[in-house]
Records
---
Amino acid sequence: MSKRIVISLLSFLVSCNVLFAHNIRDYLRTMPDSLCPILSKNNRLDMIDFIDSKMKAEVSNKFEGKSEMTALTDSFADIKMSERSSVQMRLFNPTDNKDSLAIAMIYSYYAPEKESILRIFSTTWDEYDIKTIDFSIDDFVQKPDTMSVERFHTLCDMISPKMVCMDLNSQNENISFTLSTPFTNDEDKEGLKKIIKSKNVNIKSYVLK
């Protein structure tokens, strides 16, 4: 076998390994159970098999409830853990080195309004220390032209306590932030929806240099 063929074959195998290692499925398989205690490893494996087979990816979890994987790509996964909780995962580049890789996870809880927590891990599941980025209510609200100033301020005063919820973007490395609406009547809830806007931040912004 010529030297050129050997080099080409090795390059092909290396590229395959890189592609293989960059698939979120592999990290769903290797993640510690402690990060998703409601799911066993077999639960996670079944979810992957079901969704790749175009089946509903629902399993009976450790607490004898139902959990469902609702989305899965090579870099993103979304799992409805229960009626009151969900987990999203996304592979992203944490540095300027294009070959580096990390895993962002957003845990969301509904009690009944949504509130979220961000955690970031290396591909060997060591947790990163992350920056604290504090948002004010002003970052999330905007007065519509058709709304009076008085009504706008009344609605803003209802946003207490401030509860920020997050979603990972399946198409890029952004996190979408917004405010959960407090428990109010239907009229005020509709008013809050009109003034609350989302804010997008690249996941990399949270990684400490």
Note: The chain has a mean pLDDT of 88.
---
Amino acid sequence: MNIKFKNRSKIPFKPLLASLLLCLGISSDLMAQGFYFLTNVVYIMEGSTATVSVVRDVATNSATVTVMTVNGTATAPADYISVSNTITFDVGVSNKTISIATIDDLTQEQMESFTVVLTNSVGSTILQNNATIYLWDNDGPIYFTSSTTTVNEGDGYAILTIMRDDTNGPAWVSYSTAVIPTNQLQWNQLAAAANQDFTPFNNVSVFLTNGQRSTNIMIPIIDDCSIESYTLVNPDNTNQTATVNREMFRVVLTNAIGAMLTAPYTNTITIVDNDSTNGVIGFNVADPEPPQTVAVQSYVEWYYSIFGSVRIPIGRFCDKQQAMSVKFRILNGRDICPGSTNAVYGGPSGSIYETLGDYTSPQVTGYLPGNIPYGTLSWGDKDNADKYINIDIIDDDRIELNEYIVIELYDPQVNGVSAPQALIGRKSKIVICILFDDQTSGAGDRTYNPPTLANPNPGANGTVLAVAVDNEAGLLWVEYSRA
């Protein structure tokens, strides 16, 4: 048999020929040749052991090869222990592993590297002769961005930020909650109790990817109905007293990998009680699931014509002594609802907004600067019935994007006197999305080809437009989309 080969590929000729011979069932000494690294790029944390595998595909003979390290930005012996070994592959052996120790120093530095090379082979060729070892530094500081955090009991969560300065390589760190021992408190401080005031955690791991500088953690705060206000006496001066309505606990960072714990690695959280005989006020809807902090509800534009008003309940919780009130305002914004823009309030009477409006509310009694609609909800003494904000969605025929509004509670009062602690933070806002229901013939599928600000009516046959008015700026804008 006379076979001719012409190699037009970039694959080395000998291993290509050996593969072809193998397919043809032809024995060849070439099949026993060819050392290479199984992986030619390795990333490890300094102080770890780098492991590289030298392999050959066929092991029909005995062969040797020398493995040695070569300095790069990482140098021996400061960053790693150099290696220069000749390894032997007996018949039938196709894989050998080489371990290289690296040095865990205390110097903050950029990522460094060195090279492992193959040389001086006997009984086989070298197909690929080097591998690069990258060393991630683990000496960059990792810490809380603040040593203290104050939250209202009704906020639902304490949000803490973990930061690191060096983002080369990944990093891990754990956090735990801790009750503060009495002997570590001042005479006018109180300790918060686990499972009563906050949800405890123990050694929860947080992972930061290569290049990631920061991440947030959320510690659930328990919103009870207990009035936690106490009069404390200074044991060193019985004439000195203090009324305290806040409790404290700690969150502690531990077990850093790929970074070095640096102060502040403890954050002391102070919970301010929000309970009184007057009660507390907030939207009476399900709490948002973390990491969301605002409840979101969606309604199709034709909802009002079928079901009537969207009724948003506001509750008075825990107690009902004295008269209470709270104001609400309806704000605009963007990008909370997919493919959305501002919804426009249909007022005041006689304005451009009345004819271009997307919704109205009978509870609105006036307008703040910027044409922001607002109103007031009131409870009498012993009254804890839900109050409602009705949103009447206008089902127009305009081609529009999804739209949304933000309803925000503010300025709670007891008997006409400001009482800011009476507002439940996590229940002080709600987002209402108004989903469009008007499209021209041939418009795109809203599930798989949804509208966007750049293309509000994808796939339409002709020229269509989306109209939006900004209540606050009083501007009318038009977006065109041609098929």
Note: The longest helix spans residues 13-23.
---
Amino acid sequence: MGGAEITVLRLWHGGEEFYALENLGYVIRVGSWTLLHVGDADSTEENLRNFHLERERIDIAFLPFWYLLTSEGRTVVRAHIRPKHIIAVHIPNASVSELQKVSRDIKASFPNSTIFSALMQKQQFVWHLFNLVPVPFTA
């Protein structure tokens, strides 16, 4: 397999009341894949711009749902992360109608996203003709 390389990012935690909490993000390279997980990071340009993530060629970004629902967050994703695929995480427990609305809103802005809204949810990806494609998970 050849190993993995992990870069740890010290990021501001989302929500003013939580700024004192440590929040770490990770850029993980495994084989030809580059993954990004930002934890609960604040979705501001100031928080991410100096890491130059747009140069990392992120294949899959695990992003809190609030990155994908606010104007500033969407700008950060498009300008500073530029992932091929997004997995929206930290979706709060909500009614079915609220989950459907959040999913619709995210998909409207980021059609290349997967919404993780259930515990133990899985998604498998494969490269197909130079594109990253989600496929049904096989156990």
Note: The radius of gyration is 15 Å.
---
Amino acid sequence: MEDKRLSRDPSPESPRTTSTASDGRSSTPGHFKPWPGPRVNPSPLRPQILNTRPFRKKTTMKCTLPHPDSSPKIVCMGGGTGLPQLLRGLKKLSRSTHNRIDMAKITAIVTAFDDGGSSGRIIQDYEMLPPGDLRRCLIALADEQSEPLLVRFLEHRFDDKEHDHLAGHSVGNLLLLALTQIHGGDFRKALLSVTKLLSLQSTILFPTLSPATLCARLSDGHIIRGESHIAQRRGHASIASIFLEHRDDAATRAFEPMDGVLEAIDTADLISLGPGSLFTSVLPHFLVDGIVDALNRTSARRVYICNLMTEVGETDNFSVGDHLRHLNRMGVNVDAVIVNNRPLPPPIALAYEEERCRLSYQKTLRRLDHAFNLALHDRSQTNELEKTIAESAQRLSRLTHRMAHPEHNILQVLVREEEDIPEHVAVIQRDLLAEEEIMGDEGRPKTVIRHDPEKLARCLLELDEGVRADPGGNAPPPHPEPHGVHRS
């Protein structure tokens, strides 16, 4: 039966009695403000009702946001300046409705063995864990769009003209120190407080809360103690292995993992190792009790993110295979490795080469100066001085050759021809370079190379999509591997 209330041509015999007010509106006796009837589209081509207020149906718009359960649980392990780049990329992708990123399902495990600069002074004076790498990750995860001033505040560093006790310290490091003291030395509570202060959704952990010193055993048998001394050591012997020592002599030999670390690894869908310095930011995680076992039993895909550049004193002339071999020596096997394949722009490559030559020259002079001072105060050391002079002459000769033939020097970590990489490791190559301008040690800006945050995060997520498409873990790499990769 037709509902006349929805008729486009109401009958003139309608019992409704209307009158017209002075402002042109109709009114009905006995009613203050009657409903005037449906508003009709006057177009004969589209005879639909535009407004039927008494018969409006409640509608629900379809949302294109991904379901929270589809977001992968990601654990990111690393430190230095590399890990914050990845965290920034994941944060940026989480703002898009087209990406399955839930920041509440991301856990960052940040290396805790820095002992240089501001962190080193805080360790010595206040006997707390180093805040430097942690501060960088907190800032990377903070919302700089809603709190830009807060992010700049945490990054502010007092210059050398300030009072001696403040010079070189960053506000973020001092904030973590203050919160630790407020909570009676409980670093867990301090970390929770700063997480709430920055309104972070992600979880940030240290591999261990045991105060430790990172040590390196060199190929010539010497031992270097302290993360900041490993790359700046005087000798040129390579790193054979690394280990941890307790800063507290009364402590037990064990290095217990921080609460939540093993659980995060066990329940993860995807685990990234790096980016970060191989010997001082990535491998130290595996010296903590239980972490290697957790990585080997997890069902998550384990991905190593290779550094963009070789590092003086740590990974000189290293290839991708060299990085993977050192992971394997620590007992860690990975399922995939992400490598940049874009060459450095020539001006930046030249600047890096010049800086490395300068560092090598200064390192040789420091070693020579040390030997000279020893012999000056102990004449029995003159033979050692002669030996050092001869070795220094050889190193300076090699440095001269390096300066004359920069094209032969290995700056980037790239997949080389006939690279020996295990059969089960997928090699993912992408253009991951980004140029950033930072303030150099001399107070002048300089351009450095970093991982592009968004490109790196997208590449990592592609691997997760492959795992979900093939739960057996046999998903092929997103793109074909390069020619010249030799499978062992």
Note: Residues 349-408 form one domain.
